[in-house]
Design goal:
The chain has 2 helices and 16 strands. With 345 residues, the protein is mostly beta strands. Strands 1-2-3-4-5-6-7-8-9-10-11-12-13-14-15-16 form a 16-stranded antiparallel β-barrel.
Length: 345
């Protein structure tokens, strides 16, 4: 009797273990399938060579410009979250936000993301035509790099609340945000928020026209030689606006924009035009002109002329070679030669 009881006990344990293992396997498979359905992981890296003969800042170097990981999670069909991180240079979180799509006309986003100012700034570097990515005016007025010491280097990003959507069957698209105005990974430096807006009309498939603006009060994180009246920690009027157009044809893409800024009593302005000519199925000729005046009273202006080629050797992967002639009004002209390889998955 005792032997039979032991045998039945062993059989029961074996059956239970088998059922538990099957259930665990099924749960693991369900978890994997759920993650596969709900998580999208992407990334890209840009490796470059730069030769620069600017007096006092000469360079002859290889560098890793960006190594970015992007993760998007779909919580429901309307609700999602997004995260991106740059592992190159000073590693940091670039974006983290959640958004909910109520209607095609209304999506709400909360967190840290690109400031919706200019046509260029919301665009990813992996889709931009130039190796230096954005125009001088966008870099300065959107705070992408450190060219504006008052605002600092913020990768064109800020923290806030955004609503956006398409209107009248995508004839118009709009974006309206309330932002800290202090930049990436930072709390607000004062009690006033920036209002950021975009309105773009798409009258045809090949033409988009519109404008953007920022209206706010900055809190200076540094001092600027072209705006010496503003000290670190000072609040100052910080307003911007832009207007431009984008044209897209089978053999040619063109984007052009005029930008204007006002920091305290100092006004700045600039414009750019960039063209991508598709000469072969995977090869583009790139040409651009880029003008910016940091202080209209001092005429501290510079014009860049860019020419180059890019070869899309694999989907989303490319080799770029570009030459830039830089002509500053108050300094000596200089030459910039760049090559870059972009890989993306």
């Amino acid at each position: 009797m005792k032997k039979k009881l032991i045998i039945w006990l062993l059989i029961s344990i074996n059956i239970g273990s088998t059922l538990f293992a099957q259930e665990t396997t099924n749960n693991s498979q369900n978890l994997v399938n759920t993650l596969k359905d709900r998580l999208t992981v992407e990334g890209y890296a840009q490796m470059a060579y730069t030769y620069d003969d600017t007096e006092g800042a000469k360079a002859n170097t290889f560098e890793v410009k960006r190594a970015i990981l992007m993760v998007r999670g779909r919580i429901t069909d309307q609700w999602s979250c997004y995260f991106s991180y740059n592992f190159a240079n000073t590693s940091k979180i670039l974006e983290v936000y959640t958004e909910y799509k109520f209607l095609p006309e209304l999506t709400v986003r909360l967190g840290e993301f690109k400031t919706m100012f200019t046509f260029e700034n919301p665009m990813s570097p992996c889709n931009m035509e130039l190796i230096n990515v954005y125009s001088q005016a966008t870099n300065y007025l959107a705070g992408y790099d450190s060219s504006d010491p008052l605002y600092g280097s913020n990768a064109g990003r800020d923290i806030g609340l955004l609503i956006y959507g398409d209107l009248f069957g995508k004839l118009f698209n709009y974006k309206l945000a309330v932002m800290n105005g202090q930049g990436i990974n930072k709390k607000d430096g004062n009690n006033q928020k920036d209002i950021v807006g975009t309105l773009i009309a798409n009258p045809t498939k090949w033409l988009s026209v519109g404008g953007t603006f920022i209206k706010g009060t900055g809190c200076a994180v540094g001092t600027s030689a072209i705006n010496p009246d503003i000290a670190i920690g000072d609040n100052y009027e910080r307003n911007r606006w832009s207007a431009g157009a984008m044209l897209k044809f089978k053999q040619l893409d063109v984007r052009s924009e005029y930008l204007h800024g006002k920091d305290g009593r100092v006004r700045s302005d600039g414009y750019y035009a960039v063209a991508s000519i598709h000469v072969l199925p995977r090869i583009d000729v790139i040409a651009a002109v880029d003008y910016f005046n940091r202080n209209k009273a001092l005429r501290d202006r510079q014009t860049n002329y860019v020419g180059g080629l890019q070869w899309w050797f694999y989907p989303k992967c490319r080799l770029q070679v570009q030459y830039t002639y830089r002509d500053p009004h108050l300094r000596e002209a200089s030459n910039l030669l760049q090559a870059q390889v972009q890989v993306r998955f």
